[in-house]
Design brief:
Elements (H helix, E strand, L loop, with lengths): L3 E3 L4 H10 L45 E3 L2 E3 L1 E4 L7 E5 L5 E5 L12 H10 L3 E5 L16 E3 L2 E4 L1 H17 L4 E6 L2 H10 L8 E7 L4 H5 L5 H13 L19 H8 L14 H8 L7 E6 L11 H11 L4 E5 L10 H15 L10
Helix pairs in contact: 2-10, 3-4, 6-7, 8-9
Length: about 375
Amino acid sequence: MNLSLSSSASSSSLASNSSSSSSTIATTSSSTSWFSGIRGRLNRSASCKVTSNSASGGQDMADPVVMGKNQFRGVLFKYGPKPVQVAFKTGDYQQQVIFIGGLTDGFFATEYLEPLAIALDKERWSLVQFLMTSSYTGYGTSSLQQTYNILAPIIYKDAMEIDQLISYLINKDNSEGVVLLGHSTGCQDIVHYMCANAACSRAVRAAIFQAPVSDREYRATLPETAAMIDLASSMIREGRGSELMPREADPCSPITAQRYHSLCAYMGDDDMFSSDLSDDQLKQRLGHMANTPCQVIFSMADEYVPEYVDKKALVERLCRAMGGAEKVEIEHGIHSLSNRVKEAVQAIIDFVKREGPKGWDDPWN
């Protein structure tokens, strides 16, 4: 049975289709993985396998991963216990690129995902898109506020769900390692995840930051932001950080005072790509990424970067703070790179082919 994912489908209907199909589609079986030492440390989730060639370790190349405009062929599965924890994978390979979207994003977040899925399939890589608690309008009430978990002393909510997804890929798909691809605020998720010392973070072979921009600097250009930051700070001092801000604070989503402060305040949890941070502050927040091969893809016409920011200087400083990340400047590219799709895909593919496989023979070393 073939399953296609179309942009016209909502996340709720996708989750529903996954559940209703479980009775007629065989459950995926797992094979021995070199990550067997951490099997069972995270909750395992049921999966629906809609292709019949998993035993061969690869997809039948006669079946295209993209069937038409905004129509993907692949596997829809649940990677965690929450209803929203649904993922979609194109290609049936043991190495995966995981796309992590930004605020309001879910499936089909950027136009380059379709040609990227095709290009990755030619190189025998899978592309994984997934939903988490903060997807779509969930970002306002799913803050980066710390929560405690027995698997790690401190881990962020998004980071926990990324770890659950990677655990699923290890245990169910016998993954040989993953590359994380963050878009916009998804870049912050990568930084937090790799700092959290999560159970499966050693499976990350490389990280790509596409449009790592400062939410704080952009929102500072909006007239209501200063007053809303003051209000959020007051609410947090009064112990009301989990309560919702007024609607004008964010017209796209209900947002708590804690989450608003994280996004908009100086040195908030999300403030890690701002041009006014010192080199020491950038290194403090990004320095741990030096242990992972990184690529920074910066859109030189990003509409979310204020005009006063020297983009060339900023991307240079970000790469240096990460210990020498690869720098890709895409001239005239906008935030989503919808006007420079070919350049985006080529940069990602070149990096994945070069950096992704490093260290797979001995993942723990």
